[in-house]
Amino acid sequence: MTAHVTHETSGSSGTPLRVGLVGYGLAGSVFHAPLIAATEGLVLDTVVTSNEERREQARAEFPEVRFAAAPDELWARADELDLIVIASPNKTHVPLATAALKAGLPVVVDKPVAGTAAGARELAALAEERGLLLSVFQNRRWDNDFLTLRSLIADGELGEVQRFESRFERWRPQPKGGWRESGDPQEIGGLLYDLGSHVVDQALVLFGPADRVYAESDVRRPGAAADDDTFVAITHTSGVRSHLYVSATTAQLGPRFRVLGSAAGYVKYGLDPQEAALREGTRPSAGVPWGVEDEALWGRLGSGESPLTGGGTPVRTLPGDYPAYYAAVADALRGKGENPVTALQAAAALDVLEAARRSARDGVTVALPAASASVSATAHATEEQSA
Asked: Is the pLDDT of residue 346 over 60?
């Protein structure tokens, strides 16, 4: 797909690409705005929010930023912008991305890009028709533990991987409320589509397309309306089995990764530090270490012994690198690189999420069509080449 640059001067390496950010809640303020501002060649031009408190928050960190009360204001001055980033609630992703693409603007959409795989593929087709970049923010492809595991697999340290366990667990016994925990299907809330979007995407990148999906999904907490404790099992066409857990009700957290191969296993506890750093106000900057983990949290590689009792060999965790996503987007817009996460890759993950929802509802194992597997296989091959 050819990336589109919206005005003549944007193609020059010395002219920053101007970004309009729709939404300044958690995703917009913690992830997108800081990472955009930290990326050479990008400038945060406009933030869309009508909330005065959020405007003050944005203005304090980005004094030159402009504001708009509604996304339509951006479409009206599309010639002044080079990229739209959509960090608004899930139910708005498809209509806003559609409007931006029709206005002639490249788009980054936070995950999940759509509520259905069909919706994601329709957006991909529109972007292809318009010759515009459409990318999905799957930042956890640049988590420290994920980058480390990919390196171990590529180096053959595990032998042939047979089982992949991935957990994104939390202990939040009291629901926070808001659209993310809403039971309204239109909101696309719940952990399956929130944290599940990450763990499924990582599994497909590592081990290729899904052949069959089984899931268990529950609403555990009093007052909760959306799934808050979900398990997904994927049988990949490669033969690897992925067991994925997302939960807000885990009183004792399990390992983030437990990966079992024919030669060795890798066990890693703890979360990548980048989100916590961003929430605390720390920002990526040139020459300053970023995404570095304390040695005490390094995973262990070995066989026959429990890492909890000192078995295996500590493996240095590679630094996490969220800034790499927007750097790749900037390169793609300038015709110097590929789209880091395509909408078709996101659609393959949504195929799995939809199958998981059906499996949990009906108590069945769901087979995925070959068409979905072929898209996921292409994504897996692309990631392998870039590793």
From this structure: yes
Backbone angles phi, psi at 264, to 5 degrees: -165, 170
| pTM of the predicted structure, to 2 decimals | 0.91
Report the percentage of the chain scoring pLDDT > 70: 91
**264 contacts 302 by C-beta, under 8 angstroms:** yes
H or E segment to which residue 43 belongs: strand 42-48
CB under 8 Å to 22, separation ≥6 — which residues? 28, 48, 71, 74, 84, 85, 86, 87, 88, 96
The gap between the terminal CA atoms of the chain, to the nearest Å, is: 21
Cross-sheet strand order for the sheet of 107-110 = 66-68, 42-48, 17-22, 83-86, 107-110, 134-137
Task: Please tell me the distance from the alpha carbon of residue 145 to that of residue 188, in angstroms, as a whole number.
Answer: 28
Residue with tokens 């808050």: 228
Strand 161-169 to strand 241-247: parallel, antiparallel, or no bridges (unpaired)? parallel
